[in-house]
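note to self — DONT lose this again. spent like an hour looking for the file last time. sequence + predicted structure for the chain T wanted, 171 res
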Amino acid sequence: FFFLMIRRPPRSTQSRSSAASDVYKRQLVNSQRMRGSYAEQIYKSFNLIPSHPKFEIGDNSLLLSLPVYKELINIQNSVHGGALATIIDAATTLAVLKADIEQLRRSVSIELNLSFLGPAKLGDNLLIYADCMRLGGTIAYTQCEIYEENKHQLLCTGRHVKAMMLSLIHI
């Protein structure tokens, strides 16, 4: 897993949502440790959606879109289950960072559970809703839903439990 040096944005200049977006875009995606990683292209392909009529986006949740590109496709011409697991891992990690914006602690996966409900095909656009349901001193509990955007069909759900480590801003 990767560890990052992240600088907390000044409170006076950014809201929680835009601060989380800044952390995501400038720090996480462009970090040295991310380069060449399996998840690099997924993180770079995420688009942060600030609001949507079908989703309630709060301080601990976020909505992302992701176009389905050829590297995500398996031999049956649908998104590979491992790619969906990585998407859920990445999206819920961003939700934890957003929820933990004051401390920006590192985290590592303890448990990741997925349910596959339908296929996504090349050219589809995914909507990914990730929520940090509970953030404690040592554990974060998250959930994620992946939809096909045009039909708003639920394709995959996941729960991700993460161990919270040392603060990134104090390293």
